[in-house]
Amino acid sequence: MASSADPWVREYNEAARLADDINGMISERSSLSASGPEGQRYASAIRRKITILGTRLDSLQSLLGKLPGKQPLTEKEMNRRKDMLANLRSKVNQMASTLNMSNFANRDSLLGPDSKAADAMSRTTGLDNHGVVGLQRQIMKGKLL
Q: Name one GO cellular component term (predicted).
């Protein structure tokens, strides 16, 4: 078992605390108005922390590859650390997914309803590649909206 003086374990524990903090923030977020400026700021803070945590996990992964030269670890301890890291990374991916999924409800309020999709599909019926490219250019120039 690794000692608490081990820098990798200290860094891992900090990352785990950050993950718990993010999880708590995601839970608290439900009490805020998602569309208000405070809710958006809060969501940005959560995204920022998830990014920081992802960077820390990448750092831990690289440290794990360098550890055997600096500090002899048994194969069992190395596998345990790899599992710990994989579990934490999975947790972070779930949190990021949860955050993104909750934003899908706000898509219409940001971009407006997607009522033009069927219209756009009907415009391309019967066009060859050249015609589709021409239509795209007209739409990008703002001539066909």
A: membrane
